[in-house]
From TrEMBL:
It comes from Phytophthora cactorum. Keywords: Coiled coil. Residues 93-148, 256-277, 290-315, 364-376, 419-433, 448-473 have a biased composition (Basic and acidic residues). Residues 488-506 have a biased composition (Low complexity). Residues 321-338 have a biased composition (Acidic residues). Residues 31-72 form a coiled coil. The keyword Endoplasmic reticulum does not apply. Residues 86-148, 256-436, 448-506 are annotated as: Disordered. This is Uncharacterized protein. The lineage of its organism: Eukaryota, Sar, Stramenopiles, Oomycota, Peronosporomycetes. It comes from the Eukaryota.
């Protein structure tokens, strides 16, 4: 009991000391605040003193300036005296000086005198103004110094009053604390007496409570054991369910991955089949265009051979007619023969030119189809060779045809030139069509490659998404297993703590 009483007294003392510390901190804070104000006033005083020194230096500068002005005034006075003496001397001089020069000199001297008087007046006004300003500044500095002294004295008085008030408050609180301690001691003595009376009752009550506690401990132990067994059974059931869920999730993931793989393979096969069909269509289209070109060239060569044959027959018929008419026209017949030979040579040159124009077309076709595929190049070369052999065969046939039939007259050079231009335009048009077809095939191949690359990127992104989903599922399964392990550990620790508490109670 004495120990409890002493502890209570120590606690009260600690509380009182804490209150005193708080009061001391509060007074220290106020003192710091007053010191801050004092420092601020000192800084203001220093600024005022610096300003006063500045004004004093300005006053000294103005004083020096006034001295210099006074010196200037004295020099001006001396100059004025000299001027007056000069005027008097000139007035006293003989009358030989002209009158107008005398008037000008007098006027100039008067102007100088007026200027000097005006400058002296301005200087006096400036000095008077400076003196007034200086007096005002000194009065203002004195007023500021007086206000600062009053504020400083007021702060000192406030600080002294605050210290006195804090001392009175401390003494009053000390008296109150002592009275409170006496009351607490009396109250503690009464409490000790009551505690002695209650101690016996507490012993008896403790024995009764101990018996009841033992009974409750036994019942609690039995209940804890039953709950622990039930908890272990639930944990085992959850573990089995978790294993089944993991197996099901793994099977689902494997099945989804297999379906995705099959779908990707099927999709890739479809895309490859589509690309192959497009390429076959492009090759077939190119082959058809090449076949059309070969047919057109073959028709053109047949037409040219037929025209050549008709022209030769016509020339031969004309020659025979001329020979039968008269012998006296031998010279004209020879001229006709020369003309016919010339036309034959010209027509032969036309055929050669057309053949030469056809061959570049075939070469251009070979060049364009070589960019698409090497098989197209071989086919183009074979078509050109077949066209050339066919043209030579047609030429042989045309040369073997007899020229006994009557044909229309030979074409003029203008018509032949038009036919050549038309054939060249058709060949150029066909070449442009071949180039366009090759470009179209390249564009289709590029689009197919881009689509294939896009499909590969989509498949890669889907694969990454699947991997991320599988990783998240594995993370969820791992988190669930960790939570179950934590539950098991918490259940085991709970059972151990229960067993330990039961053993302690026994």
């Amino acid at each position: 009991m004495k120990l409890n009483e002493a502890t209570a007294i120590v606690a009260e003392r600690k509380k009182f000391m804490q209150v005193m510390d708080e009061e001391r901190e509060r007074s220290q804070w106020k003192e710091n605040e007053l010191l801050a104000k004092l420092r601020e006033m000192q800084s203001r005083l220093a600024e005022s003193e610096a300003l006063a020194e500045k004004y004093q230096s300005q006053y000294e500068d103005e004083k020096l300036h006034v001295e210099s002005l006074r010196h200037d005034v004295s020099s001006l006075n001396s100059l004025l005296t000299q001027a007056q003496a000069t005027i008097n001397a000139k007035h006293g001089a003989p009358r030989e000086m002209p009158r107008h020069e005398d008037q000008e000199e007098t006027k100039r001297l008067k102007e100088d005198q007026a200027r000097i008087e005006r400058e002296l007046t301005e200087q006096r006004e400036y000095e008077k103004k400076k003196q007034t300003q200086k007096e005002e500044q000194e009065h203002e500095l004195a007023e500021q110094h007086r206000e600062f002294e009053e504020k400083l004295a007021c702060l000192r008085r406030e600080r002294i009053e605050e210290e006195e008030r804090m001392e009175e408050l401390r003494k009053r609180r000390q008296v109150e604390e002592e009275a409170k301690l006496q009351e607490d001691l009396a109250r503690q003595r009464a409490a000790v007496h009551e505690a002695a009376e209650l101690q016996q009752k507490l012993v008896e009550q403790r024995l009764t409570d101990e018996k009841q506690r033992l009974q409750e401990e036994q019942a609690y132990t039995e209940r804890i054991l039953a709950e622990e067994q039930k908890f272990n059974e639930e944990i085992e059931a959850k573990r089995q369910q978790q294993l089944e869920d993991e197996l099901a999730v793994r099977e689902i993931q494997e099945r989804v991955a297999e379906e995705e793989r099959v779908r990707q393979e099927h999709k890739a096969q479809e895309e490859q089949e589509r690309i192959r069909l497009e390429q076959q269509q492009a090759v077939a289209h190119q082959t058809a265009l090449r076949k059309q070109e070969e047919d057109r060239q073959r028709d053109e060569e047949l037409r040219l051979a037929e025209e050549e044959r008709k022209r030769k027959e016509a020339d031969q018929a004309n020659t025979e007619t001329v020979e039968e008419e008269a012998s006296w026209q031998e010279s004209s017949v020879e001229d006709d023969d020369a003309d016919s030979n010339h036309s034959e040579e010209k027509s032969g040159s036309v055929v050669d030119e057309i053949t030469v124009e056809i061959r570049p077309v075939g070469n251009a076709e070979e060049h364009t189809t070589n960019d698409v595929h090497s098989d197209n190049e071989e086919a183009a070369q074979e078509s050109v060779a077949s066209a050339s052999s066919h043209g030579s065969a047609q030429g042989d046939i045309a040369s073997d045809i007899p020229t006994t039939t009557q044909d229309p007259p030979a074409k003029t050079p203008e018509e032949e030139e038009q036919e050549r231009q038309k054939a060249a335009e058709e060949a150029k048009k066909k070449e442009d069509e071949n180039v366009i077809d090759v470009y179209r095939q390249r564009v289709l191949a590029r689009k197919a490659a881009e689509k294939q690359r896009q499909l590969e990127l989509e498949a890669e992104s889907e694969r990454k998404a699947k991997e991320e989903e599988e990783r998240q599922r594995a993370q969820l399964v791992e988190d669930a297993s960790e939570s179950d392990q934590e539950l098991e550990l918490s259940g085991g620790s709970f059972a151990e703590s229960s067993a330990a508490s039961n053993s302690d109670s026994f």
